[in-house]
Design brief:
The protein is α/β, with parallel strands linked by helices. The protein has two domains: 116 residues, Urease, subunit C, domain 1 (Roll); 285 residues, Metal-dependent hydrolases (TIM Barrel, Alpha-Beta Barrel).
């Protein structure tokens, strides 16, 4: 058989690779020199704001941070970047996301976030995390540099992971490979009808049975963890640290009665829980604060659950939880949707939160819930040099333009498929900005 033209094969192979590399930026190199960024307004992430400030970092860690108004003598002898007039924020952390697990919603083969079956405690989301997703760079360009990867489906969905969003593979991306587990609490009511023609809510007649099945399942898991079985049960093995309160259990529940039942369940088994969604949490904010139960709220850009509820309730809930002393974070569940995380937090500002409190809800509070506040969430000496530089207010979609981003001191490429197309068609019409 005649050999194919080798030049044709090389051309055929290299062209697709070249196209892919344009919209999936290469991960940044490790920081090689000490850097000082000066002149910006630094939003520390703990409520503190430093005007005309200096941020000095080396080997991926923050060495010093201070305002020029208090002064520390002459400028440090290192590479200096002038960020006068700009704003620096800690890296935003997206919670309850499917980033890297889903690519195109309408194409089933590109969605790897849901396993078949109802009891999938042994599913490890981290091994399915795709660092070459074209979605991730679009999220990163809006300031989200870390994400909690959460599987879905079934009753127990699997284990969650914390990743940084500039990596070659999942091993490089993982900050905490197996961080928690997800439980989808049964619903008291099920929506019926197509979303645009909803007939309302139907009572879930199997609710009590489903609730008891969850209790029985976790009781079995606890019994398994206390015995020495010769044959391993992978589902129960994965829950060992959960049933002993060493790893967090994330419980999806929205209705107030569901939340109360979930709390009773957790107390009965001695579990460490965080509520996800928790739309009705504002009704029992004092109870949540008393029991020290964190909450991961969903979108603020959302309609209330009930027809007789205040139309602005999703905007008001963060301030109610804050006033009660509940540790809460704001999320924007999904994958491509996560790029709007900062704007979801910003929506809570006109309804009771200060701007710095809103920033904490997507930086320091998520870090505390994930147990990594010693590394992430705020810009303090000794923590990771992971932050973003914005031309304006990061919470305001009109002024938020992320000009630079650093993950552990590495300057990250903010390009993506969408910015490539933007510049391509600017050139077509002779409008390219120099």
């Amino acid at each position: 058989m005649r050999c194919p033209n080798i030049k044709f094969l090389i051309h055929f192979v290299l062209i697709p690779l070249h196209v892919v590399s344009q919209d999936i930026p290469t991960p940044a190199l490790k920081q090689s020199e000490q850097i000082c960024i000066k002149g910006a307004t630094i939003h520390v992430g703990n409520g503190q704001v430093l005007e005309d400030a200096y941020l000095i970092f080396e080997n991926g860690k923050i060495l010093d941070i201070y305002s020029a108004k208090v002064g520390k003598g002459k400028e440090p002898a290192c590479k200096t970047i002038d960020a006068g007039g700009k704003h620096i924020y800690p890296a935003l952390i997206g919670l309850n996301t499917h980033l890297g697990l889903a690519e195109i919603e309408a194409v089933r083969a590109t969605n790897d976030g849901i396993e078949q079956g109802s009891q999938n405690a042994n599913v490890r989301s981290i091994v399915s995390y795709n660092t070459d997703s074209r979605v991730t760079p679009t999220v990163r360009s809006n300031g989200v540099l870390y994400a909690q990867i959460v599987p879905g489906g079934g009753i127990v969905s699997g284990t969650t992971s914390l990743v940084q969003l500039d990596a070659w593979n999942w091993e490089d991306a993982a900050i905490v490979a197996e961080e928690g587990a997800v439980l989808n609490w049964p619903r008291l009511f099920n929506k019926s009808g197509w979303w645009a023609e909803a007939k309302g809510f139907e009572v879930n007649k199997d609710y009590e049975q489903q609730r008891q099945e969850i209790i029985d399942y976790f009781m079995e898991a606890r019994g398994y963890s206390q015995a020495d079985y010769p044959k391993k049960n992978l589902r129960f093995e994965s829950l060992k640290e959960v049933v002993h309160g060493k790893r967090r259990l994330y419980i999806n529940a929205n209705h107030i009665k569901e939340i109360l039942h979930a709390i009773d369940f957790a107390e009965q088994l001695g579990l460490k829980i965080t509520l996800i969604g928790a739309a009705d949490a504002y009704h029992i904010a004092d109870l949540l604060a008393k029991k020290n139960i964190p909450v991961i709220l969903g979108r603020t850009h959302e309609l209330p659950n009930y027809a007789d509820e205040d139309i602005h309730q999703p905007y008001k809930t963060p301030a109610i939880l804050k006033k009660a002393g509940v540790l809460f974070a704001i999320s924007n569940e999904g994958f491509w949707q996560v790029r709007n995380l900062a704007f979801q937090a910003g929506q809570s500002v006109p309804f009771g939160l200060t701007k710095e409190e809103a920033i904490m809800s997507i930086t320091l509070h998520p870090a505390k819930i994930l147990g990594v506040e010693n590394r992430l969430g705020s810009l303090e000496i000794g923590k990771d040099a992971s932050f973003i530089i914005s031309d304006g207010d990061v919470l305001d979609m009109r002024t938020s333009i992320i000009s630079s981003a650093y993950i552990e001191g590495r300057l990250v490429d903010l390009g993506n498929k969408q910015t490539d197309l933007y510049h391509k068609y600017l050139q077509k019409y002779g409008l390219e900005v120099k």
